[in-house]
Amino acid sequence: MSASTQPPAESAGRQDVNDNVVLGDLNISGRDTNITNYLTGLRHLRPRPVDPDKLMPANRFVSPGHNFDKAAQAVRPHFGGTANVHIVVLLAADEYGCRSAGLRLLADSGVATNRISELLPDWDEPDVACLPEERGAGYLLNLRGVTQPLPEAFFSGLATYASTLRKAGSCMVIIATNVSWSRARASGPRPEILVVELERPGPTAVVKKYLESGQGTQDRSGWIDDEESVFHGLLPHDCAPGEAVRLASIIESAKSSTDEEALEEYRGWETHLSEEWFVGGSAGVETRAVRIAGAFLNTAPAEVVLNSADLLLAAPKISFPRREGGLLAMPDAPKRLKPAGMSFDADTGAASLVHESQGPAILRYLWTKHRQLTEEVLTQWLRDISQGPAKDHLDTLATALTQLAGTVGVTPIFDLAEGWLRDGGKQQQNLVGDLLSELAVHPALGSQVRAELATWAGGKSSPARQCAAARACSGAFGSAYPSQALTRARYILNSSGTDEARKAAINAVRGLAVDDDLAPLVVDTVVTWIMNAGKRIGTDQEVFFDVFSVPSTAGQLEDSPLVVALTKPGEAGEAIRQRVFEAWQHVFQHGDDPVHAQKALLSWREGAETDRLPQQPVVDLIIRLGGSLGISGPFIKAIVKAKGPLQDALIDALFSDFLQNVEAEHDPLAEASGAEPAEQRPQNPTEVAPATQ
Questions:
Q1: Largest CB tally within 10 Å, which of 284, 306, 328, 612?
Q2: What residue spans of 117-214 are helical by DSSP H?
Q3: What segment(s) does the record annotate as region Disordered (predicted)?
Q4: Model pLDDT, residue 4
Q5: DSSP of 615-671, one letter per residue?
Q6: Which residues does residue 385 pair with via DSSP β-bridges, in sequence order?
Q7: Percent of the chain with pLDDT over 90
Q8: What is the C-alpha to C-alpha distance for residues 200 and 100, in angstroms, rounded to an integer?
Q9: For residue range 644-670, what is the model confidence (pLDDT) as tens digits?
Q10: pTM strictly above 0.90
């Protein structure tokens, strides 16, 4: 992004042009309503486009019972009119395939596929005001991870919201559990909202539908009925649809109906784990170490996996003797990896599990049936490799532990995290942050993790926790739940235990602010922190300056939240720059240190003069502040009069702006006709002098 890039001119009034800097009235009246509506929309949950036909094709879907069929009938438009209901609530346990049912319901609602989106509960308190209201849209509000009963106010607001959806020709499907919907049931039915309980789809039907819809697997759908097949009779009648899909995918890739290895994969490699890989004895210790390292570091470079395995062998409570001759006595990477069920890619040097499903199975086995090894050896070993051979592959470690949490819960993972933070350094904080960021978006565990992150963020007695929480806010958690991530960042900023924790929180906010989709929300949120219902500011003023600091070099523009804010085009850009103006206005009117604020704004001007910021938006801002705060006031006067390439342009701009306003006040004919006096019209663009450098 070039510093000289200029967004569309924001001036709605008369303008002059001087040295390629637009001068004049920057009042954006006439756009205020649009900007207000846009900013209000930022508080809505962000619609994430989803395609039901890709995520759950109709030819793979098994109806979860008669109640679902009734709901599908209710949301379909009738005889060219509207549907009977515009909000449907699907209640079921998480494992019933509720999300798939919700997507298929929206697909049957008559809403265009490209207008269907999913909403995640990016709030700390459920609020109907956060729900979007676009026309002709279909929303899937995913509340599966909400573990507490929703408040009564939420249900009351939904009735009004249903009317809004009806007028907009839109609809919403809410997927939730009986626990989260319990208060709504206690308050009685609401005619505007259809609530149905789903049944569990038949697992056999799920498997058959999956296979019959695939390319070249139609004939395999009978394998689960064939008594000679190893897949016959595997599924319990009450298993989850997800488990049935897992079996179907294994059958899809099986060599035959008697493939024992495929059967073992479905059973979680239990026989291999207990009777072969971890049967005991010293003969297989080296291979065992490689297998464990591969489970944590699948697809990492072979040297990382093998060096990590060697560290495990050298652990104090293992102390496996090295071969005489050391590394010269060791086989090459492919020979060490193959006995552990891993392959070696000669082109990339990566080591990968031949069966990817073995990784989670190994970790689950160790954490449930080999607790002594995990508690006394692996916990410390993970800390060691995260600072050693795996220090550049913390994301791989985090992914493996996230998969582990899906089977053993988050408690063991938090125990690991606490140990790393207690005894580790920056690398461990990053590992814990990345891990918790991934867990925070987990469909079943995320709600619990997000709540814990809020506790960590507010606890200044543990700066290491705060740093890890800040790291989490800048990862997957911040992308999926930006409002919650910003709230947790502010908890840290309001009670940071150390400068390091504060810096980590600032960096998290900056990381979100350079995301093109999130930039408007971040700007609006930070400005709201500053204005904060008219209270004295101080700390949050510094947050504004730090988040929107001038890049130190022209080569850092793409990573600069300030450059993104000043150059974003369209309605979003207008709203962002309006909020930036309001922030500066508030800083000068209510800040505790006007001299410091002057220096900060002057640094913006200097950035525009040295190609580290775009000139036009900075000039527009200063002119607008002059009109708001008074051009003769000490705050703006110091900014304008400072020596530099833009000094003359700024002085001319403020003087021209002042004259235009005075003449407009005394020119009733011009006001009545809408005409501009000739001397106030923009010069011919061909007369513009070269751009100020």
A1: 306
A2: 152-168, 182-186, 203-212
A3: 666-693
A4: 38
A5: HHHHHHHHHHHHHHH-TTSHHHHHHHHSSSTTHHHHHHHHHHHHHHHHHHHT-HHHH
A6: none
A7: 61
A8: 12
A9: 898 888 888 777 766 666 565 555 544
A10: no
Percent of the chain predicted with pLDDT > 70: 87
Q: Report whether CATH 3.40.50 matches the domain 47-201.
A: yes
**Token pair 């990477």: residue:** 333
SS3 label, residue 102: helix
> Checking DSSP bridges between strand 138-142 and strand 171-176, what pairing results, if any?
parallel
Residue at 618: amino acid letter: V
- Look at residue 83 in the predicted model and tell me its pLDDT: 63
User: Comparing 519 with 673, which gets the higher pLDDT?
Assistant: 519
> Which ranges constitute the DSSP H helices of 20-145?
32-41, 52-55, 66-75, 98-107
pLDDT at 234 over 70: yes
- d(Cα 485, Cα 492) in Å, to the nearest integer? 11
Is residue 407 helix, strand or coil? helix
The model's pLDDT over 68-79, given as tens digits with 9 standing for 90+, comes to: 998 998 888 755
- Mean pLDDT, to the nearest integer, of 448-470? 94
Q: Tell me the residue type at 680.
A: Q
Inter-helix orientation angle 594-609/634-641, to 10°? 30
**Beta carbons of 381 and 415 less than 8 angstroms apart:** no
Q: How far apart are CA 186 and CA 184, in angstroms?
A: 5
Under 8 Å between Cβ of 74 and 88: yes
- For the chain, the structural domain boundaries read 47-201, 204-267, 515-659
Contact 211, 252 (CB under 8 A): yes
CA distance 560 to 428: 27
- The dihedrals phi and psi of 130, each to the nearest 5 degrees, come to -85, -5
**Which of 486, 506, 496, 489 minimizes the C-alpha distance to 464?**
496
- Which of 126, 121, 118, 125 is closest to 145 using CA atoms? 121
For tokens 């101080």, name the residue: 538
Indicate the pairing of strand 48-49 with strand 116-119: antiparallel
Q: Give the separation between CA 439 and CA 407, rounded to whole angstroms.
A: 12
**186 or 246, which is more confident:** 246
